[in-house]
Design goal:
By secondary structure, the chain is an alpha/beta fold. It is 26% helix and 22% strand.
């Protein structure tokens, strides 16, 4: 079994990166033939305003493989076109498929694949197909015909997930292996690629896949090492942390990171060069149960406010978040434990990826000799360049680093606060108001056994925390904030009705 190197210090990573940079020949070899796999959620063409993403917004020079998401599967095991008006040209359709495949005219080395499945397609019809010799054969040959008809270079099998989500837990794992072995034999006859998007963490991947067996059949595997935490949790956590954090204490939680997932796949026999590391171009957001407790692992009451383009609570595209930073003040933080940023504003909490975390993830995949990087998905990068970093700032960083370039300069967010719980008097943006060095008792605001927050009688930027026996600590809110007695936190000044004299 491959040992998991949990918690590798940043200093070690940077030192290793420096050694690699000092050896041009080693660096040249390490980037050879690395894949840059780009998924496109084609429904993004229906998004409003600057979120609208059409085929012409794709920069084909940034990717080695483009994945068209998604097609489905019919009950008779044939490939299903989900949105004929969008995908096809018939009946005055938009002809997305033809325009998508036509991007190879701009980049002849580009490969385009049809992604069949996805979360919304579920597992039931895949399970039924894989259980039948006849239906497996029909699916395989219809997939070949579909690629030939539309000009795709292969199929990306996105069955989410064998033996789960209405699949058959008794036989799907074996039937999935049979399916991909039979696909491989036929696809080789027609020169087609065969890839897959796969679950990442052990408690899911271990149920769904015979990893050593199916790894032999796929050209490469796109490991979805994201969605580790989200609105389905009762606490906030990073979408795609590199390493385990101190808030991860259960057997399941310790698996919810890139490092544990990749080492699980390696330990089960997957060749490193066939594993493509998934990187999300979006974040997962939460609404905090108490704005005063905003550390990783803090209690939540659901997903964060929906963004203007993705329009889904609990999700923010990188383009949506970077636009927010143009007009809103967020507390940008960095977790040294998990090697990723997160951000807080009032009761909104976001775990996401930025240029710096992407640099570390690319370095990570290079050190392990993985096959490359995959992104979900192009339309949530700042593809219009609205935020000032040029078009596709995240994708361009990935492309540059996997082609031997040097990392772009980055601004380091504030370090992770020292505790996983917030001290009394925390502001809504996560900073803490400074207390007086000694408890105040003489002429203080507290009486008897009173415990809790008390506003200052004349200064809205100050407040007390009573600790019993008439003692208290005095706090002063950071500049621009005032104590909000309705929330017991330092809130933005324009949100507080101050009655001090």
């Amino acid at each position: 079994m491959v040992k998991c190197f949990v918690g590798v210090p940043l200093l070690v990573l940077l030192a290793t990166a420096s050694l690699a940079a000092d050896d041009p020949e080693r660096n040249k070899t390490s980037v050879a033939a690395k894949k840059i796999v780009c998924y496109v959620g084609t429904w993004a063409v229906y998004r409003p305003g600057r979120g609208r993403f059409d085929i012409e917004h794709i920069d084909p020079s940034l990717c080695t493989h483009l994945m068209y998401g998604f097609f489905g599967i019919n009950e008779d095991a044939t490939v299903r076109v989900i949105d004929p008006y969008l995908d096809l040209e018939e009946n005055w359709g938009r002809g997305h498929i033809k325009r998508f495949v036509g991007l190879k005219n701009s980049n002849p080395a580009l490969k385009t694949l049809a992604a069949i499945g996805g979360w919304n397609e579920g597992s039931r019809k895949f399970s039924k197909m894989a259980a039948s010799v006849e239906l497996r054969k029909r699916f395989i040959y219809d997939s070949v015909a579909f690629c030939q008809r539309h000009g795709f270079d292969g199929i990306d099998l996105d069955w989410e997930y064998p033996a789960q989500r209405d699949g058959d837990p008794e036989v799907d794992k074996e039937n999935h292996a049979l399916l991909v072995e039979e696909m491989r034999a036929v696809f080789d006859q027609h020169g087609l690629l065969m890839t897959a998007a796969v679950a990442s963490v052990e408690f899911s991947a271990g149920v769904s896949y015979d990893i050593a067996r199916v790894s032999k059949s796929f050209d490469f595997l796109n490991v979805m090492v994201y969605d580790m935490h989200g609105a389905w949790d009762s606490y906030c956590g990073i979408n795609a942390p590199v390493y385990r954090g101190s808030a991860d204490t259960t057997d399941e939680q310790v698996q919810l990171n890139v490092n544990a997932s990749i080492h699980y796949w390696l330990s089960q026999g997957a060749p490193a060069e066939k594993l493509v590391l998934g990187i999300p171009l979006y974040g997962r957001s939460f609404t905090l149960a108490n704005a005063a407790n905003s550390q990783i692992g803090a209690a939540t009451i659901g997903g964060g406010t929906a963004g203007p383009y993705t329009q889904q609570a609990g999700v923010l595209g990188y383009n949506e978040f970077c636009e927010k930073l143009q007009t809103e003040t967020w507390d940008l933080r960095w977790s040294d434990e998990q090697q990723v940023p997160y951000a807080v504003r009032n009761n909104q909490w976001l775990g996401y990826d930025d240029v710096r975390s992407i640099q570390l993830k690319v370095k990570y995949l290079m050190d392990l000799g993985l096959g490359g990087a995959m992104v979900w998905s192009l339309e949530t990068d700042d593809f219009r360049g609205y935020c000032g970093g040029g078009q596709y700032p995240l994708m361009r960083e990935i492309h540059k680093l996997l082609n031997g370039g040097t990392p772009s300069p980055t601004t380091t967010p504030a370090p992770l606060p020292p505790s996983t719980t917030t001290a009394p008097g925390a502001t809504t943006d996560g900073t803490t108001a400074g207390p007086s060095t000694t408890p105040s008792t003489a002429d203080g605001p507290c009486s008897g056994a009173q415990v809790g927050f008390v506003p200052h009688p004349t200064d809205c930027s100050r407040f007390y925390f009573c600790v019993g026996n008439g003692s208290s600590f005095e706090f002063t809110c950071p500049p621009g904030t005032l104590f909000d007695p309705t929330m017991n936190v330092c809130n933005w000044a324009d949100a507080v009705n101050c009655h001090s004299l």
